[in-house]
Specification:
Largest sheet: 2 strands, antiparallel
Order of helices and strands: HHHHEEH
Distance between the termini: 39 Å
Number of helices: 5
Radius of gyration: 16 Å
Structural class: mainly alpha
Number of strands: 2
Strand content: under 5%
Length: 98
C-alpha cells in the first residue's frame, strides 16, 4: 500500500501526473488527490502502477511469481534467474511442448 509521498515517488519517479492518469484511465485531479493523500488510492490502481512503471508483479500473484517482472523497454516477461525475456509468442509456443 502506498502510504507516503516517498513511496509514491519511488514508484512514479519522474513520471508526469498526466501520464499516470492516462495509464489508470482517471482524471489528473484524481492522481493529484492520491499523490497528496487527500484520497485513498485503490489497491488495484497501485498494483497497476507498479506493473506499468516498475515491471514488478504484485504479491497477490502468488509465491510462484515472486521475482518475475516485465521489461520496461521491451515488454517481455523475465524470470528471476534468466537474462532472456519471454514474448507472448514464446508463451503461446509452450502449449506445443506438452
Amino acid at each position: 500500500m502506498i502510504t507516503s509521498l516517498e513511496q509514491w515517488q519511488a514508484i512514479t519517479d519522474g513520471v508526469a501526473e498526466s501520464q499516470i492518469a492516462a495509464v489508470l484511465r482517471v482524471n489528473r485531479t484524481t492522481v493529484m488527490r492520491w499523490r497528496f493523500a487527500r484520497a485513498r488510492m485503490p489497491w488495484a490502481a497501485q498494483c497497476l502502477l507498479k506493473i506499468h512503471f516498475q515491471g514488478s508483479l504484485p504479491p497477490s500473484a502468488g509465491p510462484a511469481w515472486s521475482g518475475w517482472r516485465f521489461g520496461h523497454r521491451d515488454g517481455l516477461l523475465y524470470a528471476p534467474t534468466l537474462a532472456r525475456g519471454f514474448s507472448p509468442a514464446d508463451l503461446y509456443a509452450l502449449h506445443w511442448l506438452k
